[in-house]
Every structure is written in structure tokens, then in C-alpha cells.
């Protein structure tokens, strides 16, 4: 069993680690988040009564559900009529206008079946993929220039084409979950999704060319194959749970993930790979000298074996060649050399599909919650033991991993109880901001993962401290039921953080208001 030693928390009592006077002291030196706007998108947004929580709008694996482009902001969600909706507003002060797509209805109670949104700058098309959990593709795209000249686009259902089961003509996509879109540096759009199921799936990428209006080069990148054994079992199949895919300032595509095995449950290891050619050739994070031991290890912890970076394309640095041809492709696998940056066993309750960001200097940052030996010890002091592989909520902490310009990885554990899966934003000066749904009562949550009595919490850390001064800087009272999503596009353009929140229902499946909260960061 791999026990990754973490920071000694020195917690004495109580599940909430920041008392008011300490919070006030810390806020004096921290960046500040000031709410400047609170707008209602839809008073009747859908909630569900599912086994994966009650939110189907605002879930962590929607890479983008809110996007700003050409002075307009777009948000996608299901309304109470079980229809896909896209709302937009002009940021200059226009109210939200809702486009409801009434020709497709889904009333699923499965939180996996979210909507993902993408906008292609080169042709102004708006892309939607929705209602999947091991399903045939549901995809539709707007007319060209809909987002290029939004004032001229008639915001109605007729703007979108029909629901399609393919990207490339004639190639039906089946068994799909977790679609996500992101813009490429050349102004086009890319998409990824999983084919297969939990513990038994591959990650696929495809490219959209805004000059031709066509998808092309659908290709597998991460494979399910290989054998894994630990005290919880042996499996010969798995899937990668991606955090995000993001381009850095030099045009490098970064991906991080954890593995979910087909037997034994839970997740293990934090994994990373990068590509300099838009996702065709993938490189590991290994220096020619092999593994190194970082010197800046956590207080009281054993050395952590991490890996350093070489940005070459030598044979020993390539871990994947996504050709799209089974005869020639080389997929990233469990045993691919040098891709594991944090070896972390399933004992530590690593949560999947969390967050990453690339800062303006090209440094990679990953934030994920999991437990540590010391946080488990704290939970035990409160009367709870680490049964199973998820651990008690009292033991969960956010862990920030980042790679410096020399290729070494660093680690910092935040000292408070983790809430929902977070999202990370980094502004031009390098200061980092983390948003998440905080849990009001970790004792009541127990070993659960989802809750509806959450508050929006914003944390910050400064680049000048090398991100060792993480502090909670704002708590927006809910209760909210969704995992927090923010508009990365608007943040990059204006340093305004627009956050998607949905109010919690009084009874399961009751429709509730969906709002966008805007914050400036001082």
C-alpha cells in the first residue's frame, strides 16, 4: 500500500479549522474578492433526485458550462421542462436571454448527463454536447457567426441545427460520457470524451476546424489496458478521469488525471502528460536523469517521489502517439513511463475530475482533494476511522501541486476540510484563486460525496509566497447544491470571476433559481 506522507496538521478540536478572529487576521494580507453583481439566469432550473447528488447543472466534469466571447457571456443548463437551454447576456449590462431547445427532452436523474458548451472563435459557432452516460452522442451546433456577431444573431431555437450522433460524417459515436470542449491557440475547437464505462474506458480527442466547419482526426489518447494490483484487488482495465485539458502560453496542451480501476473502487495516482502539437504526440514529465526526490517536502513527511520535465520529443520522452489508426497508435497507459507525478494509493480517497490551470509563466498547477495519514489521524480523534477507500469527510484536504520552471514539483496541503471538487483560476501576476462548494457540517456528511447545504467559498494564494499562503477570502452563503463552476474565459480577459450557482431545493427534484455571481479580485 502506497502511503504518501503529508503535512502534520496539528488540529486540536472541531471540524472547521478557521475561527473568526484568525480569519480576520489572515484576510488583512490576502487578495480580496468583492461581489459586484448577482444576476438571475432562470428561476426554474432543474434539479434531480439521483444517486450522484441532486445537481445536474453545475457539476465538476463540465469543463465549461459558462463561456464569455466577444463581449457576451453564455451559460448552459437544463430547465424544469427537461430541455437544454443556453442563456446569454451582453456584459455591458444586458439581462439574460434564454434560448430553449424544445425538440429534445431528457428527464434523467443521473448527474453524469450534464451539458458541455464550447465556442469556436474562427467561425463563431456554439457547440453543445449533452445527456450522456455510456450513451450515443447527442451533439448540436449553431449557425456560423452566432458568437462572432452576437447582436446580429436572432437568439431563438432556429439558430441551432439538429441533434447529431456523430462528429465526423458517418462515424456514429457510442458509449460516450464526459464530453468537454476547449479552444485551441489557432482559434479552433477541440473535444474529448470517454468511450466505455467507469473502470473500463478510453479517452478520445477530436478537432474542429472553423474554416471548414468540420470535425476531423478523431483519435484515442489514453488507454484502459494494463494490470494493476494493490491490497484492494487486481484489475486489468481502468479509465482516466481527467481534471481538464488546457493550453499554456507557449501553445502546449496539458492534461492531468487519476486512474479508476475496474475492481476495488476509488481512484489512485495523480498523472500528467503534455503535447506540443495539439494532442497528437504526448510527452511524459520525466527528466533524462529519471526520478528525483523533491527537497521541499511537506513538514513532517517522508520524501515524495515526483518527476521533472524535459520538453523534448526524444524517443524516451514520448508516451503517446495519437494517430487514430489502431495499427500505429501508441496510447498512454497505466504503465507508461514517467506519467505518474504523485503516486497515491486508493487508501487515501483521491477524488476524481477536479482541477488544473496553467499560469502565465507556463507552470502547471493541479489541485485535488484526498486524505493523508495526519488527516486520517485527526478524523480518528473525532471518533471516525478510515473504512473503505473514501475516508471520512473530516479527513479530506485540498492539495496544491505545482511544477516550477526547473521541472520540479512542489506540494502544499490546505489546512481546512475539503468541500466539493474545486476549480482553479490564475491571474497574470500568478496569484491563484480556488472556488468550491464548502460543506457546512462534515460530521453529517460522513463518507458521502454530495450535499445540498453548501456555501460558495473562494480561496486565494499569492505567487510571491510560492502559493504557500492559501487563505479563505470570501464565503457566499447558500445553500447551493452545485459544484462551483467559473468562467475561465472572462477571468482571462478581465480578471472578473463569474461563478455559476444554483439554489438548493426544499424537496428533491424541485426547480430552483440559477444565478451568476460576479466578483472582482483586489
Count of strand segments: 32
CATH topology: Methylamine Dehydrogenase, Chain H
Helix content estimate: under 10%
Assembly state of the chains shown: single chain
CATH superfamily: YVTN repeat-like/Quinoprotein amine dehydrogenase
Mean pLDDT: 89
Q: Can you tell me the number of structural domains?
A: 1
Going by helix content, strand content and strand pairing, the class is: mainly beta
User: Major β-sheet, in short?
Assistant: 7 strands, antiparallel
Q: End-to-end span in angstroms?
A: 44 Å
Unreliable spans: 1-28, 287-313
**CATH architecture level-2 label:** 7 Propeller
Tell the overall outline.
Answer: globular
Beta percentage is 35-45%
For the CA atoms, what is the radius of gyration?
A: 22 Å
CATH hierarchy, class: Mainly Beta
Number of helices: 4
Relevant terms:
522 residues; mainly beta; Methylamine Dehydrogenase, Chain H; seven-stranded antiparallel sheet; globular
List the helices and strands and how they pair.
Layout: H1 20-27, E1 33-45, E2 66-69, E3 72-78, E4 83-90, E5 97-105, E6 115-120, E7 125-130, E8 139-141, E9 176-183, E10 189-197, E11 200-209, E12 214-222, E13 225-230, E14 233-247, E15 253-261, E16 267-275, E17 281-283, E18 292-293, E19 305-306, E20 318-321, E21 340-342, E22 355-358, E23 364-370, H2 373-381, E24 397-403, E25 409-417, E26 423-426, E27 432-438, H3 442-445, E28 454-461, E29 471-480, E30 485-486, H4 488-494, E31 496-502, E32 512-521
Antiparallel strand pairs: 1-32, 2-3, 3-4, 4-5, 6-7, 7-8, 9-10, 10-11, 11-12, 13-14, 14-15, 15-16, 16-17, 16-21, 17-20, 18-19, 22-23, 23-24, 24-25, 26-27, 27-28, 28-29, 30-31, 31-32
Amino acid at each position: 500500500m502506497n502511503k504518501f506522507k503529508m503535512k502534520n496538521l496539528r488540529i486540536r478540536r472541531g471540524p472547521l479549522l478557521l475561527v473568526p478572529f484568525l480569519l480576520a487576521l489572515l484576510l488583512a494580507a490576502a487578495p480580496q474578492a468583492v461581489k459586484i453583481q448577482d444576476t438571475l439566469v432562470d428561476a426554474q432550473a432543474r434539479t434531480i433526485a439521483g444517486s450522484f447528488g441532486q445537481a445536474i447543472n453545475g457539476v465538476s466534469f463540465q469543463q465549461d458550462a459558462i463561456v464569455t466571447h466577444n463581449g457576451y457571456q453564455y451559460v448552459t443548463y437544463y430547465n424544469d421542462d427537461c430541455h437544454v437551454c443556453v442563456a446569454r447576456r451582453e456584459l455591458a449590462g444586458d439581462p439574460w436571454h434564454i434560448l430553449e431547445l424544445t425538440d429534445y427532452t431528457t428527464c434523467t436523474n443521473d448527474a453524469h448527463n450534464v451539458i458541455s458548451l464550447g465556442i469556436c472563435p474562427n467561425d463563431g459557432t456554439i457547440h453543445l454536447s449533452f445527456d450522456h452516460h455510456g450513451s450515443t452522442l447527442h451533439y448540436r451546433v449553431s449557425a456560423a457567426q452566432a458568437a462572432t456577431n452576437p447582436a446580429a444573431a436572432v437568439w431563438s431555437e432556429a439558430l441551432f441545427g439538429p441533434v447529431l450522433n456523430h462528429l465526423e460524417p458517418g462515424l456514429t459515436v457510442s458509449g460516450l460520457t464526459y464530453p468537454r470542449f476547449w479552444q485551441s491557440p489557432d482559434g479552433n475547437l477541440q473535444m474529448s470524451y470517454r468511450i466505455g464505462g467507469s473502470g473500463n474506458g478510453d479517452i478520445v480527442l477530436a478537432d474542429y476546424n472553423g474554416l471548414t466547419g468540420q470535425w476531423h482526426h478523431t483519435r484515442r489518447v489514453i488507454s484502459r489496458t494494463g494490470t494493476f494490483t494493490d491490497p484492494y484487488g487486481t484489475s486489468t482495465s481502468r479509465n482516466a478521469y481527467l481534471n481538464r485539458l488546457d493550453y499554456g502560453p507557449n501553445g502546449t496542451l496539458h492534461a492531468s488525471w487519476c486512474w479508476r480501476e475496474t475492481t476495488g473502487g476509488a481512484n489512485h495516482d495523480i498523472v500528467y502528460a503534455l503535447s506540443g502539437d495539439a494532442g497528437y504526440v504526448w510527452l511524459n514529465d520525466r527528466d533524462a536523469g529519471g526520478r528525483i526526490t523533491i527537497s521541499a517536502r511537506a513538514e513532517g513527511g517522508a520524501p515524495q517521489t515526483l518527476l521533472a520535465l524535459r520538453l523534448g520529443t526524444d524517443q524516451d520522452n514520448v508516451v503517446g502517439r495519437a494517430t487514430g489508426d489502431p495499427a500505429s497508435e501508441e496510447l498512454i497507459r497505466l504503465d507508461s513511463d514517467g506519467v505518474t507525478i504523485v503516486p497515491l494509493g486508493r487508501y487515501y480517497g483521491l477524488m476524481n475530475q477536479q482541477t488544473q490551470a496553467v499560469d502565465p509563466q507556463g507552470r502547471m498547477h493541479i489541485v485535488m482533494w484526498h486524505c493523508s495519514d495526519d488527516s486520517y489521524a485527526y478524523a480518528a480523534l473525532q471518533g471516525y476511522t478510515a473504512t473503505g477507500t473514501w475516508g471520512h469527510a473530516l479527513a479530506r484536504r485540498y492539495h496544491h501541486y505545482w511544477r516550477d520552471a526547473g521541472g520540479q514539483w512542489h506540494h502544499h496541503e490546505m489546512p481546512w476540510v475539503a468541500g466539493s471538487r474545486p476549480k482553479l483560476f490564475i491571474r497574470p501576476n500568478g496569484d491563484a484563486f480556488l472556488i468550491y462548494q464548502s460543506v457546512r457540517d462534515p460530521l453529517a456528511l460522513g463518507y458521502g460525496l454530495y450535499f445540498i447545504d453548501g456555501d460558495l467559498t473562494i480561496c486565494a494564494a499569492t505567487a510571491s509566497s510560492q502559493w504557500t499562503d492559501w487563505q479563505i477570502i470570501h464565503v457566499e452563503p447558500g445553500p447551493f447544491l452545485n459544484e462551483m463552476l467559473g468562467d475561465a474565459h472572462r477571468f482571462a480577459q478581465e480578471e472578473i470571476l463569474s461563478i455559476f450557482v444554483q439554489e438548493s431545493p426544499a424537496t428533491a427534484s424541485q426547480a430552483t433559481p440559477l444565478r451568476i455571481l460576479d466578483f472582482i479580485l483586489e
